[in-house]
Amino acid sequence: MPYNDGMPDVALLRRDLLRAIEAARREAAEHRAEREAARRAYDTFLTEQAIPVFRAFASALKAEGLPFEVMTPQGGVRLVPDRHREDVLELALDVEADRPQVVIRTTRGRGSRTLQTEQPLRPGIALDALTEDDVVQALMTALVPWLA
Length: 148
Fold this sequence. Notes:
Distance between the termini: 66 Å
Structural class: alpha+beta
């Protein structure tokens, strides 16, 4: 930006500021559209793939003497052990990440401590490319502490 007697040219400053404002608005609109598309893809994934897998796991775990209940709060699915209701294994959509992604979260009580983890279901994979197998693999891994 050229300076005139130590002062920026107001017209050039305004032009650059208007460009920055327009770019920020355009970027915000793109992020909103991306998040909305991610929510739609996630809702489809949740109802058609994730929830049925969670229900199948709950049924199989119950048959093995490990009673778990499936809960389906708005926008997610949870697997909760009957004995420790504060423990939770859940899928959720993280729209705050650079790119929206499905995450698997676990919360386990260990005495007076609560241990929480969160990791992407499949890092770098588009939401519409996630499969039932991805959910199965994630649950197999995440359930290990409850299986002992």
